[in-house]
Amino acid sequence: MEFLRPATWDEALAAKAEYPTALPISGGTDVMVEMNFDVHRPSAILDLNRITELTEWTNDGSVVRLGASVPYARIIDELSGPLPGLALAAHTVGSPQIRNRGGVGGNLGGASPAGDAHPALLAAGRDVFVEAASVRGTRMIPIDEFYVGVKRNSLAADELIRAVHIPVADGPQQFSKIGTRNAMVIAVCAFGFALHPKNGTVGTGIGSAAPTPRRAVEAEEYLQGVLAERGLWESGDLLGAEVIQKFGELVKAAASPIDDVRGTADYRRHSLAVMARRTLTWCWNDYSKQIRSAA
Amino acid sequence: MRVTFTANGKPVEADDVWEGESLLYVLRERVGLPGSKNACEQGECGSCTVYLDGVPVCSCLVAAGQVQDREVRTVEGLTDENGELGLVQQAFIDAGAVQCGFCTPGLLVQTDALLESDAQPSDNDIREALSGNLCRCTGYEKIMDAVRLASARKCAGKAESE
Ligand SMILES: Cc1cc2nc3c(=O)[nH]c(=O)nc-3n(C[C@H](O)[C@H](O)[C@H](O)COP(=O)(O)OP(=O)(O)OC[C@H]3O[C@@H](n4cnc5c(N)ncnc54)[C@H](O)[C@@H]3O)c2cc1C
Ligand code: FES
Ligand code: FES
Question: Buried-most residue among A14, A158, A166, A178 (CB within 10 A)?
Answer without folding.
Answer: A166
